[in-house]
Write a structure and sequence with these properties.
A hairpin with a 5-residue loop joins strand 1 and strand 2. The chain has a domain of about 40 residues. The protein is elongated. It has a 3-stranded antiparallel β-sheet with strand order 2-1-3, with no helix packed on it. The chain contains 1 helix and 3 strands, in the order E-E-H-E. The model has no long low-confidence stretch (mean pLDDT about 80).
């Protein structure tokens, strides 16, 4: 079952819960504080990691190597 970040429209409590897609879409997930099923999804940003695409110089590079792509 997926996890959802939800906010209760009645009491403004924000929580994370594991529920089936059917439970969420059929509004069968209650708020853990007040019991209301009037919930909205909360979308949070995830950290982004950007890989450095520039290859470092190969420490083993030689004329016979032909410019290999060792990464470390």
């Amino acid at each position: 079952m997926p996890f959802y970040d939800l906010r209760c429209a009645a009491c403004d409590k924000e929580f994370n819960i594991s529920a089936s897609v059917a439970e969420k879409t059929e509004k069968r997930v209650p708020c853990p504080d007040c019991g209301s099923v009037d919930l909205e999804s909360v979308y949070k940003s995830a950290p982004a990691y950007i890989k450095n695409l520039k290859s470092p110089s190969c420490p083993n590079r030689s004329a016979s190597c032909g410019g290999c792509r060792h990464t470390g």
